[in-house]
Design a protein that fits this description.
It contains eight helices and seven strands. By secondary structure, the chain is α/β, with parallel strands linked by helices. It is globular.
């Protein structure tokens, strides 16, 4: 059964690199919960049939010129901005990192007045994810005097707000940039509990490798210090 339509149109952005094993099922599940439009943003280092399967599954395929997590997401955002899209943008992992029921709960829990809605992950996070997440929550509180409940990759952001945030390609820090810039602009941030599964298809671009996690942490600190004029 499809979920009831929400007030604003929703587009899902799914950044991918070698996600051929999961992308078809992700697209089917998104359709099942009522997300009718998906942009699959493909990393230039992707070498499998992700693009072909995404197109066959009815997704719009965008090819990024830069690798990592940020570049593909920003390429999809640029495509939406070019067409004048005015709605909600759902950022979703392609490797079954979150159960689709959690994605549905996030969409069902959207507050119409919210500018950004983050999923709050449960205790299934890896140890370095929990440590890094808690560290940056403390850093954000010291900087902005506002407690952030989580900085997860599963989030919904209003397109008009994305434009205001002036996000930059740093490879692995886009969710963190999103919340830093939103705090600076005093945007309304809401949270919905989600389930983070310990098993997944493929390897995460960030949390799946401690090296990428370390690189992401460094880029997050840069994002905290080097904030563009908003």
């Amino acid at each position: 059964m499809k979920r009831p339509a929400i007030e604003r149109p929703v587009v899902a952005i799914v950044p991918c690199r070698n996600e051929a094993l999961s992308i078809s099922s992700v697209l089917k599940e998104l359709a099942r919960i009522g997300v009718g439009r998906v942009i699959v943003a493909v990393d230039p280092r992707s070498t499998d049939t992700t693009s072909v399967l995404a197109a066959e599954g009815g997704a719009q395929v965008v090819h990024s010129l830069s690798s990592g997590y940020d570049g593909p997401c920003l390429a999809a955002i640029a495509a939406l901005d070019h067409e004048g899209f005015d709605g909600d943008v759902l950022f979703l992992d392609a490797g079954n990192k979150y159960e689709m029921d959690s994605v549905e709960a996030l969409l069902d829990g959207l507050d119409p007045a919210a500018d950004i809605t983050f999923g709050i992950r449960d205790a299934q996070m890896k140890w370095h994810q929990r440590m890094g997440n808690n560290l940056f929550r403390i850093v954000l509180f010291l900087r902005f005097r506002r407690w952030v409940q989580d900085v997860s990759s599963l989030r919904v952001v209003r397109m008009a707000v994305i434009t205001e945030l002036k996000l930059q390609d740093r490879q692995f820090s886009l969710p963190f940039q999103t919340i830093v810039h939103a705090l600076l602009l005093r945007k309304r941030i809401c949270y919905v509990p989600i389930h983070c599964t310990p098993t997944r298809t493929g390897v995460s671009k960030v949390s799946g490798d401690w090296r990428n996690s370390t690189k992401a942490a460094r880029q997050m600190m840069i994002a905290m210090v080097k904030v563009p004029r908003l």
